[in-house]
Amino acid sequence: MSDEHRETGTGWPQPVEPVRPPGPAGEPDPRPDAPDADELSPLVPGEPSRERPSESGDDDGATVNLAEVASAEVGSSAQPSDSPSAGPAGRKVSSAAVMIAALLALLGFTLVVQLKTTSTDPTLAATRQEDLVRIFSDLDSREKRLQQDIEGLEDSQRQLRSGEQGRQAALEEATKRADELGILAGTLPARGPGLAVRFEPGGKPIRADRVLDAVQELRGAGAEAMQISGGDRASARIIASTYFLDGAGDVLVVDGRPLTGPYTITVIGDPETMRTALNIPGGVAASVRGDGGNVSVEDREVAEVSALHAPLKLEHARPVS
């Protein structure tokens, strides 16, 4: 509540008397508490300030220039002690520092990323993700294959280094390999399932090229060992280097040994496959029958190839150590 409310005691504000202007020029305000006319006169710019004597009544008392006081108050209010431009300037400096720090951090991060990129393989860095997955898969598969090879070699090494067991395993493997090579070279006899193919001449003798065709077809059908026998029961082992020649009369020369007909080839292999090879249209059987002869094929559960070939003496070939 204002002072006016307290003075009246009513709680409601009393009407304020309007300030009556003075009467005619030169007449003072009739109110006893009316201010002096000189005090109410406004200051007009450009006019000299009015002076009034000081209340002390001294003749030489100081005079108060109201215009100077007003201008001093306006100047003091326009220029406070703390300049308003200092605040924004300080904030601008702080924002610039933050921006510089952010740019320096970004520059450092870029340099680190560039160093890491250049330190890696540029080819792999430019490769697509699908290609990298395929490369990794190939490397993984190669690693697995190499690991399997290593395990196999380690098993063989353990067997060979396990004393008597290793020596026995090596001996058995070497013996098996020597037997296979002996059968192929014709230095060892062989037995097994096979066929007995008999060539009987007709009006013409059995020519050497017919026998050679029969041997080639049997080899192509999986023959593993063969020998040829004549009517005089002389036999010759057939190996890779065997040759056939036509002799005088009804004679067939096999590796320099003469044989007379009829001729029988004993062969070890799959009987059904070899039979089919001999009886194909236009094959050996058809050719011999065309010359007036005959070809008979007999299955053997156990065919024996007992004829041996002398070991070949190698003059130029040497094993590679």
Any overview of this molecule?
The protein is α+β, with helices and mostly antiparallel strands and 321 residues long. It has helices at residues 3-8, 37-40, 66-78, 86-119, 122-125, 129-160, 164-185, 208-220, 271-278, 284-290, and strands at 190-200, 225-229, 235-238, 244-246, 251-254, 257-260, 263-268, 294-305. Mean pLDDT is 74; it is low at 1-12, 15-19, 39-67 and 69-90.
Key features of this structure:
3-stranded antiparallel β-sheet; alpha+beta; elongated
Question: Nutshell version of this structure?
Answer:
By secondary structure, the protein is α+β, with helices and mostly antiparallel strands.
What does the average pLDDT come to?
74
Regions with little confidence, pLDDT below 50 for 5+ residues: 1-12, 15-19, 39-67, 69-90
Please state roughly what percent of the residues sit in beta strands, choosing from under 5%, 5-15%, 15-25%, 25-35%, 35-45% or over 45%. Answer: 15-25%
Instruction: Calculate Rg over CA atoms.
Output: 66 Å
Structural class: alpha+beta
Biggest sheet architecture: 5 strands, antiparallel
What's the total helix number? 10
Helix percent reads 40-55%
Measured between the Cα atoms of the first and last residue, the distance is 126 Å
Strand line-up in the sheet with most strands: 3-2-7-1-8
Instruction: Report the order of strands and helices.
Output: HHHHHHHEHEEEEEEHHE
List the helices and strands and how they pair.
Blueprint: H1 3-8, H2 37-40, H3 66-78, H4 86-119, H5 122-125, H6 129-160, H7 164-185, E1 190-200, H8 208-220, E2 225-229, E3 235-238, E4 244-246, E5 251-254, E6 257-260, E7 263-268, H9 271-278, H10 284-290, E8 294-305
Antiparallel strand pairs: 1-7, 1-8, 2-3, 2-7, 4-5, 5-6
Helix pairs in contact: 8-10
